[in-house]
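Hi Prof. W.,

I finally got the ABC-2 type transport system ATP-binding protein prediction working! I wasn't sure whether to trim anything, so I left the full sequence exactly as given:
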Amino acid sequence: MLEVRDLRKTYGSHVAVDGVSFTVSPGDAFGLLGPNGAGKSTTIAMVSGLIQPDSGEVLLQGHSLRAHPRFVKQRLGLVPQHIALHERLTAEENLRYWGQVYGVHGARLRDNVEWCLRVAGLTDHRKQRVERFSGGMKRRLNIAVGLIHRPEVLIMDEPTVGIDAQSRNHILDTVRELNRDGMTVIYTSHYMQEVEYLCNRLAILDHGRMIAYGALDDVRLLAGGLSTVRMDLDGDPAPALDALQQALPAERVEAGEGRISFHVRDPGPAVGKAVLALSQYGIAPLRIDIERPNLEAAFLQLTGRRLRDGGDA
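And this is what came out:
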């Protein structure tokens, strides 16, 4: 569907994006994850044709953005990080205006406006001026504008910044539903939970460079691939520690009062071995928790720091 080849962008001596490449397949929910200032918004601006890269290429269905900008832009929907609405127009008037900008008219425009209002949950507010909207309502209408021409690829740049939890959840569920219905989505965020909730593939950017790329589970494994197993027990594990260590020779078993924990690459077989070793001493697990590698752990492993807050580059 979309191919990004070696994009690079500098501003004076500052390298904002340094050789970013990735592909997005039809129906993907593709995440661009990284701290603010990592280059996500600059990458999105180049992919959507808002700014020209210093070098590199963007192709949609094999058509170059540089050579065929109209073909590409008509098939992309962009939801920018900053609200792009006319405050003195109503929700419906904003959708009609932007639909006409995209070349949508007549019955198709009417149908698309109705669909976008439903998707955004704003049908009952269609005649209300945007200046009276809450921040969350503006964000939802901002997404609806990006959908007004029914794009094949929806690009969303930090769409939940600065909104309440209810509006954030509405937006995330809306994006997930659009993707399930077949729309290809590119989603940028510095919130790991959003990317894990929405995306099946992703790239992690930091300081303008792509430091990880692939399927969500594969990127999680960059944390080292170890799951943490915790067991609450119905007895003291001390008598069984030697047997546990023999059953799990590669792992360090930590024991406390009525519980044990260990780290393992493949938790399924390890849990079975631990339960069997404990049973020899008449000890049974009351509760078993398995914490698998996550994006937070992978990001810390790759960068040595947590995602930071603030503006993006």
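Residues 17 and 231 are 45 Å apart (CA to CA). Does that look reasonable to you?

Thanks,
D.
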